[in-house]
């Protein structure tokens, strides 16, 4: 219920103005976001790599309705990729980027989003790294998978994201569990109707396990994106028989850092999803929706400033 209210607020422009305009302490946002500038993103990447972790960087922004804004997002990725390469942080999959198609024009025109995604993929290849296309709400799933198919014709290393809460996802896993196919499996972070998505957490978890079985048994490269201790343990069991490095764990910046380190110390590939930039509102609201304790933390910080 609370989750639904917060997720609805994440799409409400009035609430957005209120929250994003509040004199938030940097500390609240900084728990989940590495900073606003590309320097922050690069610094965080270097620090995580020092600890044996790998990184996927997300230049924050979504739901873009202007081609100029989409172009600015692409350029931000190009700058980021050049900086990462110049600092020696790419190569051997150590730092890649995650892109939301709605940030590069999907709501304006799918072919614009595809062309913009291709520009980022080209720059990523030049920087010796890869791109993963984030998955957004279910109205964009078909379009995102179509863009993925097109982009993979030239850049087969492009990663996909599938959301276990959607009824369709087990079938999508079967389609995508092919040789060389990088697939991030997450639970799903948006408010979705019962017609397309499981609503009860236990149903989502069961779907996650079914999907993970398909991916782990397939020929692709599964990317296990969850902080859920049970799912992390199940992934470990399902990965028996696969060599370390033929799959990876992924977690969000600021969430369960000790677990990230524990897995990395055990020789697993662990990728931390690191968002940066000033368009943090939608991302922050989804993190608050996932855990009521985060909301309490957030409201306390707001109250202490009013
Ligand atoms: P769950 O929410 O059940 O959390 C399990 C435990 O993890 C909690 O008990 C708590 O300890 C900890 N935890 C989880 N979330 C927390 C939070 N916000 N704050 C503090 N602790 C928290 N979604 C999507 O729709 N499209 C996408 O492209 C992506 N991409 C993506 C990349 C990566 C690397 C990750 C890890 C996740 C995503 N997600 C996503 C988000 C995903 O769908 C999901 O909403 C979150 O990962 C939370 O689900 P968990 O699997 O962690 O389980």
Structure description:
By secondary structure, the chain is α/β, with parallel strands linked by helices. The protein has two domains: 1-33 and 285-306, no CATH class; 36-279, TIM Barrel (Alpha-Beta Barrel), CATH 3.20.20. It contains 13 helices and eight strands. The chain has an eight-stranded parallel sheet. α1 (2-9) runs antiparallel to α12 and α5 (67-86) packs parallel to α6. The protein is globular, with a radius of gyration of 18 Å. Bound molecules: dihydroflavine-adenine dinucleotide (FDA). Dihydroflavine-adenine dinucleotide binds at residues 134-135, 161, 163, 184, 186-190, 225-228, 250-252, 255-256, 273, 287, 290-291, 294. The site of dihydroflavine-adenine dinucleotide (FDA) has 24 residues, from β4, β5, β7 and α12.
């Amino acid at each position: 219920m609370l989750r639904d209210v917060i997720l609805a607020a994440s799409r409400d422009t009035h609430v957005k103005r209120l929250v994003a305009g509040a004199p938030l302490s940097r500390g609240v946002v900084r728990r989940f976001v590495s900073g606003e500038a590309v320097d922050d993103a690069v610094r965080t990447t270097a620090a995580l790599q020092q600890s044996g972790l790998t990184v996927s960087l997300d230049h924050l922004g979504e739901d873009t309705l202007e081609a100029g804004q989409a172009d600015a997002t692409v350029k931000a990725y190009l700058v980021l990729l050049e900086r990462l390469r110049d600092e020696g942080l790419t190569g051997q999959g150590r730092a890649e980027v995650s892109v939301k198609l709605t940030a590069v024009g999907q709501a304006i025109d799918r072919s614009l989003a595809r062309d913009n995604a291709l520009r980022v993929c080209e720059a990523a290849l030049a920087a010796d790294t890869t791109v993963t296309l984030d998955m957004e709400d279910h109205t964009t799933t078909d379009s995102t998978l179509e863009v993925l198919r097109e982009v993979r014709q030239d850049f087969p290393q492009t990663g996909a994201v599938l959301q276990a809460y959607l009824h369709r996802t087990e079938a999508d896993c079967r389609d995508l569990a092919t040789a060389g196919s990088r697939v991030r499996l997450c639970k799903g972070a948006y408010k979705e109707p019962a017609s397309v998505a499981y609503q009860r957490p236990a149903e989502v978890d069961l779907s996650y396990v079914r999907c993970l079985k398909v991916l782990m048994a397939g020929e692709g490269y599964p990317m296990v994106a969850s902080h859920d201790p049970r799912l992390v343990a199940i992934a470990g069991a399902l990965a028996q028989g696969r060599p370390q490095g033929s799959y990876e764990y992924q977690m969000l910046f600021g969430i369960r850092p000790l677990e990230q380190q524990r897995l990395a110390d055990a020789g697993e590939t662990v990728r931390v999803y690191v968002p940066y930039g000033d368009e943090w509102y939608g991302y922050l609201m989804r993190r608050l929706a996932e855990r009521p304790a985060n909301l309490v933390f957030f409201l306390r910080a707001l109250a202490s400033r009013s």
